[in-house]
Amino acid sequence: MKIKSRRTFFKTTFLSTLVMVTANNTLFASITPLQTLAVVQKDLFPKEMITQANAYAYVSLVFKHSRVSAQDKQFLRNGTKWLHEEAVAKYNKVYTNLSPQERQDTLKSIANTSWGETWIKTVLSYIMEAVLGDPLYGVNKDEFGWKWLNHKTGSPRPKEMYL
Amino acid sequence: MKYDYDICIVGSGAGGSPIAYELSNAGYKVAVLEKGKNLREEDVSKDELAVSRRGLYTPDLKDERHIINNREENGTVTRYDGHEYSWSFWNGSMLGGSSNLMSGYFHRMKPNDFKLKSVFGEIKGANIVDWCISYEDLEPYYEKVERVIGVSGEVVKHSFLEPRSTRNFPYPKLEENAVTKWFDKACESLEFESIPTPRAILSRDALDRNTCSYSDFCGSYACATGAKGSGRAALLQKCNAEIITEAFVYKLDSDAEKITKVHYYDKDLNSHVITAKIFVLAAQAIETSRLLLNSKNEYFPNGMANNNGEVGKNLIFSAGGSGEGRFHFKDLDALKQKELMQTGLFFNRSLQDWYEFKDDGINYKGGTIDFLFEHANVISRASREFYNNDGKLIWGEELQNRIHKQLTSSRVLTFEVFNDWLPTDECFVSVDEKTKDKFGVPVGAINLWGHPHDVKVGEHLAKKAVEVLEEMGAKEISYNISAAPPPNLVAGGCRFGEDAKSSVLDKNCKAHELRNLYVTDASFMPTGGSVPYTWTIYANALRVADILKKTV
């Protein structure tokens, strides 16, 4: 029972636990991955679509999903830390305190690194899941994503979420 | 001695389900042990997030994995942990196995596939042999599959049409997308022979199953109407074999001559034992070899039926690869644009003009090319647009516009090449003693190597497919032929043959070394032909079922 409780604690706090942003080997700032991802999502895909997709809440679901591996979750979390560190190196500010243009420049900068390219693709993949997944998962509000692409989904639709 | 069952079958896919169906309907007491759950038509959906993004129908790799020992071009071997590298060889872990998830492209093997060595000769570095049965031996069972599983299509005359005992398929062609007319016209112009692809999908209500609903989500998804000829829908639901699901068989026991019992874990990891007169393994090629190799005792210290050291050897896949071309609205008139975007209807076309071909005076065994539209999975289709035409990662409005344009004003036609994966000493199944699954059982190790000949043949076929796409007016044509193994097209490991020293099974698919052990999944195949395997697995299992009826 104790172990189960700890696991539950881990799951619910994984995204809200602060990541430590360091610069020159000293602590620069601390910020949660979820706050960071909320900003990054809107920098990577138009804001109104992110909102209709409920992409912000979907990230929490991804982090709880039994079939998203611990390594993938850790990579997503670590990416937010590295993104901030890149922002600090360029502008001496954490990513979320940058101007929109500075944030875009920071994304372009990390896109030229191996980890950064993979991380941006990972975030984009989860955005696509939120834009185009079945609304049963609390995403793709009123099927706006399917309507956007004239997509006819398969039948039958799912009756329950697979988590 | 009193037995729990006459026949105990391990695995319920295309290899196991025909045995259960035939023997239980003949009055024998049959048990089927299946690792997955029993998911019926009403239990499945077209949930892309669950099925295609989160592996709903396959084991979690952190619990069950394979070790892949890949032979690199320089001869060194690199070890990959399947979990660490997200490299999965699982297919469908559910009642009926991966036959639930197949696309159902059904081609028979050709007569010369059964005598590859005699017809085409040896190839250096490959263990090619003739089969110990002929096409003529299997033809009645191919025909039986057409009736019992249900194959729809239209037989057309072409250069490599195999001999048939009936004139046509028992079920008419499925409805086709209008773009097939463009394809047929292009083939006519190129003097290629367009073949309507036979499918293991019912085109009308029959066999107490519903017709296809044309949902556009077929391959990778379980069928919700029962039209797809899975082992579950077509066979297991129509017999009174006892089905035991969520049962993982981890060990066989034997005396010197016969298997005495199987051990399995239920979902709560409680161990159970079953006795039977006859045991049939059909757990999928890799897992069948793994089970035999993990079942050691004083009589079989190297694994069950493995005193000759042949179990796991000569693992094969389907060689070849895939390619595609894109049709853009800007190149089409209004009618053709409408035709292009028709959803639901099938693009059932194949080419077998080069099933055998000559190049530089040498006769080659070639293969099959199947054409189909890109899968309807919309998240996957959107995600492939993350890069622009210059190969640069994009996001924001640029990505939004690209996705919209590509998915609403163009469509991708793909092709798949199937040719022989030559059996070699370097491609085989073993067991990785250091790595255990959630049951505490050593996992299967897949030792991989593809013979260079396979890629050469695949390239020849892919170039022909490209000619068709070009003639049709497709743009952005590309293809990839490689030695990468498709996890859903795997066979061998327990090849059958007359010689007990160089094969695991005899011509009846009974182990040479044991009196009551049979293997009826794709493990028995010494070579694979140049077609998807499922029809041949079904047919051979029905053949073995007839033998078992006389044996039990």
Task: Describe the model.
By secondary structure, chain A is mainly alpha-helical. Chain A has helices spanning 2-13, 33-44, 47-53, 55-64, 70-91, 100-111, 114-132, 144-148; strands spanning 19-23, 26-31. In chain A, α3 (47-53) crosses α7. Chain A is globular and about 55 Å long. With 552 residues, chain B is an alpha+beta fold. Chain B has a single domain, classed as FAD/NAD(P)-binding domain, CATH 3.50.50. Chain B is 23% helix and 23% strand. Chain B contains 12 helices and 21 strands. In chain B, the strands form 5 sheets. In chain B, strands 5, 11, 12, 15, 16, 19 and 20 form a 7-stranded antiparallel sheet that branches. Chain B has a 5-stranded parallel sheet with strand order 6-2-1-10-21, with helices on one face. Chain B has a 4-stranded mixed sheet with strand order 4-3-18-17. The radius of gyration of chain B is 23 Å and the shape is globular. The A-B interface holds A 43-46, 49, 65-71, 104, 107, 111, 117, 120-121, 124-125, 128-129, 131-134, 136-137, 146, 148-159, 161-162 and B 44-50, 53-56, 60-62, 83-84, 86, 213, 215-217, 221, 224, 341, 343-344, 376, 378-379, 382-383, 386, 393, 395-397, 399-400, 403-404, 407-408.
